[in-house]
Amino acid sequence: MKKILLIALSSMTMLSAQVQENVEVPYIPYEIKMGKGFDTVQANCLMCHSFGYIINQGPQSRDFWAKKVDKMIVHFKAPITKEDAKTVTNYLFEQYGNGKEK
Ligand code: HEC
Question: With 80 as the cut, is the pLDDT of residue 94 above it?
Answer without folding.
Answer: yes
